[in-house]
Amino acid sequence: MLADERGKSGDVAQYLVGAKLMIRLQREIPVLAANKGDRKSYADRDVRTGDFEIENTMIEVAVGIPDEKHLAQIVDALEDTDLEIWLLTRHHRVETWRRELDALGYVDMERVIVSSVESFVGQTITEMGGFSTTGKLSQLQQLFDLYNNRWVEAVGTPAMRIEGVS
């Protein structure tokens, strides 16, 4: 994948999740550069606990291996809020993230959902496409258009664009 080679897979994943949320929830989602909305300190104004906050849920996109920043962020959110936490990672890293969170011992895993970006985005595309091939392709094109026109145009680079489906 080109995004992996260019070190942009996290950005691409975060922007696809943002576009998916806009499509699925039929509402505006703030378009911020990757990780720019995360809390840096409690003195920061208008910061979020994660990449996205929707109602009583924090969504954090972390496509790499488990790291201290993301683990601390999840622990802080669990301790400081009553939010449900969705950690979205690559499909082959879901179990690694679950094991790492379990190993912390004190994480309330009942409030943490670890899932893959692929499943999180793909399920919406499939459902909204009516489970038909034509419908899925149409929804996928809508996702890519929104990703390109809202996210890449505002905070990405032209090299991050995703070409249409065929």
Set down the secondary structure blueprint.
Elements: H1 2-5, H2 9-25, E1 52-54, E2 57-61, H3 68-80, E3 84-89, H4 94-103, E4 112-116, H5 117-128, H6 133-155
Parallel strand pairs: 2-3, 3-4
Antiparallel strand pairs: 1-2
Helix pairs in contact: 2-5, 2-6, 5-6
Describe this structure in words.
With 166 residues, the chain is α/β, with parallel strands linked by helices. It has one domain. Helix content is 48%, strand content 11%. It has 6 helices and 4 strands, in the order ααββαβαβαα. It has a 4-stranded mixed beta sheet with strand order 1-2-3-4. Strand 1 and strand 2 form a beta hairpin. Helix 2 runs parallel beside helix 5 and helix 5 packs across helix 6. The longest helix is centred in the last third of the chain and has 23 residues.
